[in-house]
Amino acid sequence: MFNDQEMMIITIAVIVYFFFLFGFSIWVSRGVKTYDDYNVAGRGVRMFSLILTFVATAIGGSILLGYMTSGYEIGMGQQWANIGIFIFSVVLVLFFAKRIRRLGEKHNMVTLGDFAALRYGEKARLPTVIAVLMAYCSITGMQFVSIATILSFTMDVNFTVGIIIGWILLTIKTYFGGLKAVVLQDAIHGTVQTVGIFLLFFVVMYYSGGWQNVEQNAREAGDGWMLSLTSLPTQEIFVFLLTIGAYQCVRQDLWQRFWAASSEKTMNVGYWISIVLMTLTGIVVVLIGIMSLHGLNMTIDPSLVYYEVVGEVFPFPLVLLMILALLATVISTADSFFISGASSIVNDIIGPRVKNPSNQKMLFYSRVSVGIVSVIALLLALYIPQLVSLWVTGTAMLVSGMLAPIMVGLVWGGVTKVAGLASMWSGLATAIGWQLLDHPFGLHPVFVGLPLSIIVLFAVTFMTSNLNQSANRSEAL
């Protein structure tokens, strides 16, 4: 696709871009003085930055590359991922966000584990950390895969080598600035990626001759099914809803941004705006994939749709900008999940065991934790290099173990500590085991782990509540 001169220009631009990000992170790190600065951006993020960090974190390589590829292959069925994210995001902001914010302010929370420990005792930190790391290391690893894809296609770098390069670059960059640097960079990345994606959408729509022409071409080619939301099997629809969708409610990076916002109003308004932007972005990315096949009439390797499309409709200078926009998309997600996963290690595993923790000591452990997360993410990226599969696998672990005890525990005080712990461990262990057994009976782990977690939560609550009532009656006698 690119000649030697263009590949050299791309290589130089990417190197310069990474050096800019490194320098920016080091500059911001000079203002990172406290543990809260590093992990929750000092709890003072303003509206504009908050909106863009919500968007930049949510729209990663899996959406821009994975969704576009899926749009090319399966059409509108991929929109169920967007529908799931939208539904559960609205549920979260309407019924849970304010309570999450107020609890975080009251108890100075940093992680999901802080809430789990408050609700179910300190023993709840361990299953929460395991579930969070399963999801966040998977998503971080997914961004390594995205970078490897970019380097492989634009610079002819070996794919495995590309994953390792992405790992090294993102780890070094993220190590210095923490969430404070991430939020500031997201103001840039969020703007670049949003403008870039919508620009690409409108240009592709123009060259496709409008959506009506796309529909006509699809039907004439016998691919009318791609235009329907029912093109996806029912089981796969529910996989999207119960993993990528339900995961929104227990996204630790979201909870941290709720706590990082400068006020409750900023959090609420900022998240509503970001929901709209995220949903529209996800929708147009899928549509670009469909239009590349039945609008631009391109017969290409589906995994290279993004690159082929930008090369088809843009001159080289704009192609270069779109490659940088793709990098911005990947990096803004990767560093956010780096920080979130590392927060769980330092806050829920290391922190409770450190005697007389000072800000300097906890800052050091926070940065060490970034390194730990990066190694786990690297191994996952090498094991499951498929973008969406890696994302769905990680979110299935988190949803199976945490969704029921966390969300029910937020609104119902009747759940017992024993029930919460039993629900976490049963859902998480079952989902992990089911994944390792390679999905027996063709069932996705979330279809087994989540129902079991819900059943255990209510069954054990009922049994232990009755036991406590009987014990209280005996004591009264």
UniProtKB/TrEMBL annotation:
Check the UniProt entry and state the signal peptide residues, or none.
none
Q: How does it sit in the membrane?
A: Multi-pass membrane protein
Provide the protein's localization. Membrane
- Residues crossing the lipid bilayer are 6-28, 48-68, 80-97, 129-151, 157-176, 188-207, 227-250, 271-296, 316-341, 362-384, 390-411, 418-437, 443-463
Q: Which family does it belong to?
A: Belongs to the sodium:solute symporter (SSF) (TC 2.A.21) family.
* PANTHER family xrefs: SODIUM-SOLUTE SYMPORTER-RELATED, SODIUM/PROLINE SYMPORTER-RELATED
Q: Identify this protein by name.
A: Na+/proline symporter
**Pfam families for this protein:** SSF
Q: Show the InterPro entries listed in the entry.
A: Na/Glc_symporter_sf, Na/solute_symporter, Sodium:Solute_Symporter
Keywords from the UniProt entry:
Membrane, Transmembrane, Transmembrane helix, Transport
